[in-house]
Amino acid sequence: MNKRESILKSKLLYAVAAEALILLVCLIIRPDFFRISYQPETGMLYGSLVDIVNRSSEITIIAMGMTLVIATGGTDLSVGAVVAVSGALALKLIRWDPSNPLYSTPGDYSVYPFWMAVAAPMAVCLLMGMFNGMLIAKFKMQPIIATLVLMVAGRGIAQIATNGKQFTTLYSPFRFIGQGSFLTLPMPIWITAACVAGVALFTRLTAYGMFVESVGINPSASRVSGLRSGRVIIIAYALTAFLAGISGLIYSSRISSCDSNNAGLNYELDAILAVVIGGTNMSGGKFSLAGTVVGALIIRTITTFVLYFGVVSEAIMAFKAMIIAVVIVLQSEPARKFMGSRRKGPALMGGAAHA
Amino acid sequence: MKKLLTLALVLALLASASSAFALTIGFSQIGQESDWRTANTDDIRTKIPLEGWELIYDDAQQKQENQIKALRSFISQGVDYILFTGVVTTGWDEVLKEVNEAEIPLFLLDRIPEPSTLEKIEYVAAYGGDFIEEGRRMAWWTVNYLEKLGRSEEEVNVVILEGTTGSDAATQRTQGIEEVLAKFPNVKIAAKQSGNFSRAEAQPVMESWLKSLDKIDVVLAENDDMGLGAIDVIKAAGKVPGKDIIIVGCDSPKAAFDAIIAGEMNATIECNPLYADAIIPMIKALEAGETFSREIVHPEEGAFDAEGGVPYTEDGSKLTVKAADAIDERKY
């Protein structure tokens, strides 16, 4: 096993340990945090653990793409705005028909067919991602600058699409995406599972995952050795925006409405954080999708934890930041070396020095 | 020749048009952060020109520096009145003094600068909502409704979905609610937490409370969006919103009326964004030489619920209006 891989493994281990530790604290303070019951009225499992997985869906889905983007050595700041665009377009297709007064109030109807209300936003998001990828791969723009364009413009596009209004809907197929359930679990959990499995299969069954790592480790060497690095990069950004589009549909379905101002706000930061906590290095190279999933779960567990225990509103941000800082410091190289030297004695220290 | 004639005609029209305005009014608005704000802007922008007055509108996109620029440009354009609502409460001393020096009458709206600024500057009138009173009304409605249900002796657990942490509307509404509920020992505030005035952020907060608290009887949401977000989560917990858990909101947009009529929400306390009908007569009065005190004038605001007739003020003089009767008049 080479050094990069072993670091990744140990980071993943730390992330899992951090999640276990947070849950252990919950267990000690309030054992009922773990209570899960079956809710016959809704046919769903009911409990805080279900909430954690359910509410982490939006970030987990985006973070799958973000992992690949970061592995290529880039970053995508536009995902939050893409979430807003996706929701706005979906609601517009469901609600918008100025010529028909029937559609002026929300109801269980859709102006355009369901598949269109779902597929069109995802297609637009895919194009937005390709735009990001083109700016970076073809015009050689810095990823932060290139994706800043849509980060700023995206919310404007979403507002123009809805004329600055919040459309609300009672259209049941659409509401099912975020509020429905299948085999006792909320739909977002299934959608997330499908997205995680999809990205994992795509990166591990094809050579794409290896290409991403190679572009991230050494872009020039990859290009010289015949790898079309531009194409690899464009696919990573396009996939990320596409996943952000799915995330946006879940978000707007949960609230049965679109909210161009707040939808996906700060999601880019949470997604990057999930990737980093999961052990993927911001400078690119080897990546861990499993680590990212755990990272997203950690972020959501902290939020659910502070809400459950009633931490005052003013302190939530500081409290979250504190826990995350501890997790990241524990993963840092000096901290890991320190822990390693204590556990295994000088052997590993020597090994690390040689590597 | 024909072209020249047309040009002359257009110029003449333009000249006559610009002199035709009796008053020129500059309006510096915060931006468009909510439906409430959109309704507020649309109302002022459509009704002031109907008076034959010219309105110069500036959207500051939530930035103080943009508002300062807009105020200075109003001064250089020599407008007759300045309508001003500040995105924040501090940092206005200097630019508002410049407005005073230019002797342009200043009309404060909605978000009024902090008292220390108000002491230093002159303004002809101030008009805006009374957030503390809105909070009190939410609490009075709740207490009176519980009495109507015959639950006034019962131990009742209330949770408060607060607005954006640190905003006037949030802190003052909470203050009003707590002030009134303190008088009723059987009504206990079991939890309060920020839902950031948004549907999406209110959901996980409510979701956690439903699991961590033994009993929730009433949700007081500091805006209706948060109340609407809570409804779906309450349903997912197998409870009936509006019956098992009473939901009271604030603002009164159309969406809240729909929810009340559907029986999923119980009441909404109005926070009226339609300012034009109040401020236009005030401007006319100022033009006629009248003066207003430095006190903030508050809009007349109502409250709406499913059946109507529930008192929502301390003296019990005001009664709620039935939502189904009022929905057709709602403009936003």
3D structure, described in words:
- The complex is a heterodimer of chains A (355) and B (332).
- By secondary structure, chain A is mostly helical.
- Chain A has a single domain (3-349), classed as ABC transporter involved in vitamin B12 uptake, BtuC, CATH 1.10.3470.
- Chain A has helices at residues 3-29, 48-55, 57-71, 79-95, 114-137, 143-161, 172-179, 187-205, 208-217, 219-224, 229-254, 267-277, 289-308, 313-331, 333-344, 346-354; strands spanning 37-39, 44-46, 181-182, 185-186.
- In chain A, the strands form two sheets. In chain A, strands 1-2 form a two-stranded antiparallel sheet. Chain A has a two-stranded antiparallel sheet with strand order 3-4.
- In chain A, a hairpin with a 2-residue loop joins β3 (181-182) and β4.
- Chain B contains twelve helices and twelve strands.
- Chain B is elongated.
- Mean pLDDT of chain B is 89; it is low at 15-19.
- Chain B is an alpha/beta fold and 332 residues long.
- In chain B, the strands form two sheets. A seven-stranded mixed β-sheet of chain B has the order 7-6-8-9-10-11-12, with helices on both faces. A five-stranded parallel β-sheet of chain B has the order 2-1-3-4-5, with helices on both faces.
- The A-B interface holds A 30, 32-33, 35, 39-42, 44, 46-48, 51, 55, 105-106, 159, 164-166, 168, 179, 251, 254-257, 259, 261-263, 303-304, 307-310, 312-314, 316 and B 32-35, 38, 162, 165-166, 191-194, 196, 198-201, 203-205, 207-209, 211-212, 228-229, 232, 235-238, 255, 258.
